Amino acid sequence: MEVAYHKAMTNGDTDTAEILTRIAVLGTLTEFHADPLPYDLKSLVDLVAGINPDLLCLDMTLTQWQQQDFSRLPSEYREALLPLAAQTDMVVVPIGGEQAMPRATAVGWRNVLISGVRKLLGWLQATAPIPDAINQGWRHELANLLYSLARYLAGEAANHAYHTHIEQLTQAALQAAAHNPGNRLLVVTNIQYCHHIRPRLRQQPAIHETAYTNL
Question: What is the pTM of this model?
Answer without folding.
Answer: 0.84
